[in-house]
Amino acid sequence: MRLLVAKSYAGKCELIVNDQEDAQPGNLIEKAAHILKKYKRLSLKDASVSLVLGTDCYESVLVDRPMVDSEEIADSLKYSLDDLVSLSADDIIADYYEFPEQPTGQDKVVAVVASKQLLKPWVDFLEDNDLSLVAITVSELTLPSLIKPPTHPEMVIYQTQEKQYLAQIYTSKGLLFTRILRGVTAMKQSVNLYRGDLVPVNQRLTLGKLTMGLVVIAVVILALATIAGWQQSQAQAKNEELTEQLNAANNQLTSLRDRLSNRKQSPDLVAKKTELQTYIQDARTFRQSINDFETSASSAVASLLRELADITPQGIWLENFGLNGEKIYLQGYATDTEKLVLWMDKFKLLTAEFDGTCTDFYYMGQPQPVSLSAQVVNASGNKTLNYTGSLAKAEPLFYAYDSSRNQLVDHTVSYDGVWEWGDGVGQFTGNASVSVSRLSSGQPDGPFRNYILGWQLDDREDANFYSTLQNSDLSASYGAAEVDSANLYYGRLNLQDTYTAMARLMKTLKQKAPLVFTEDEIARFTGVS
């Protein structure tokens, strides 16, 4: 192992250290640590390092250039060299270099492979010693840099540490040929014709030894038979003893069963047992009643707290509350009396239905007479009489839903009528109706079978719905309650004495061109499908 330390400045390189250590393949890292420790005074931290592998640490093979892009050649070599090198594909780290000149008709590259298991400890060692590894190269490419570029071809032979010879040919274009000359290594210089065929075989088995062996085997067999017979007799005696004990136990068990079946229960003990069972059942019933009471009381308090938290608006806060039977006592503050009144009230639905002689179906845009009223009640369910005058500002809002209770958001619902409050009751004065608009695009849609008309009351408190209608289970801001249900059609046809079957041609008096109506179109207008 050799360590070269050079310093570069002003474009020149000055050799600082040239030292070596004798090493074996198993202690290379240990020797490297030792030689670095020897020169730690040089402050080599973050120094750039090029690791040069000896000829015994890599393999190089001349192969045909793979038919891939240049940047992919190195990665493809590990799979094409599996049969040409001694390393497996998973352990190969591969790269290549090219000669400046190629024989006519050939396109070769020199593949260089090394073991990943060999190189990884070196990478970790250099990083642990704060050295910056910039390259891992091989000796056959490093040695040419020691020769001044020749003006004519030259052949140089190097002797390696393994007593082999590396022959290289240089030209002005660079390295042209490299090869390890393995034929000049140490050769066998002795002959020994005393082979295994001439070695005599010793006959170790004699008649006396055979006889002795047979006698020993017979003695062993006889001893084993004697032992087996003794063990069998012992087991048989033990088995008979256990059988007698089992029979005695069975007889005793039978006797005890007979005594138990003949025994009569004591009337006093039976009566006492019944009394104890009754007492235990009463105790369990009493305990369950206590648990039910504690659970119901806790649930009532939790439910009250949750409901108060949900319905208390901004501007109102509570200091104390209490329960006494079915009455609730509240104590707190409010920023103004109007919010307090609205918070304490909720609307109770009185009447909600379609009005008139025909309530089975309506057309879009057609007025739908309604009968509607609501009553304001407080938290105790009693009618609130002071919801009148300037405090009574709530007005109705209407929504349309299909039979699956999905809101028809593209259809607006308006109403015609006067809504007034008096003594806590709100209602339309005189005739009132609502109408569901058609689509703004003008495209027909429907029919909506069993469409639902929903409504809610708007407190007109900056979009805050402090009070809601009972049974407000339709989707809307803070929920909407159902008014009534009917079929809703897009419109109706006005034909003049014209008759035909569905999906047949029709002519009117005012239109000479034939009209064709599909079943879907007829259903939108008439509700018939």
Automatic annotation (TrEMBL):
Q: Which residues form a coiled coil?
A: 232-266
Protein name, please? DUF6701 domain-containing protein
Record-annotated membrane-spanning stretches: 210-230
Pfam families this protein is in?
A: DUF6701, PilN
Keywords for the protein's UniProt record, in alphabetical order: Coiled coil, Membrane, Transmembrane, Transmembrane helix
Superkingdom in the source lineage = Bacteria
Sequence ranges assigned to domain DUF6701 in this UniProt record: 347-500
